[in-house]
Specification:
about 100 residues; alpha+beta; four-stranded mixed sheet; 4 strands
Length: about 100
């Protein structure tokens, strides 16, 4: 179950994500165990990560974003074109203090 965040928290995270570059770049093979492992590691380390998703079909990109969020237990902060921003709080050492 992906983490739930409020609209004010999403707004705050969108502001933080504005200057970030995509860390995970999906290839032609799409969502693979290797991609999920890298995304899981990136979320554990950074908490807020951008992912670039190839493909022209909007529904396919949307399905990939939902799958990535569900597989990594992350929340989708935003989607703009081919880039999605995901957030997952690190339970051991949180780096981002979310507003209430």
């Amino acid at each position: 179950m992906p983490a739930a965040i409020s609209s004010s928290q999403k707004r705050y995270l969108r502001g933080l994500a504005h200057s970030l570059k995509p860390v995970i770049l999906l290839g032609e093979k799409g969502v693979t165990p290797g991609v999920l492992a890298e995304l899981d590691l990136a979320l554990s380390h950074h908490e807020l990560v951008k992912v670039r998703i190839p493909g022209e079909d909007r529904q396919v990109r949307e399905a990939v974003v939902v799958e990535l969020a569900e597989q990594t237990n992350a929340a989708v902060v935003q989607r703009i074109g081919h880039v999605a921003t995901l957030y997952r709080r690190n339970p051991d050492a949180p780096q981002i203090a979310l507003p209430r």
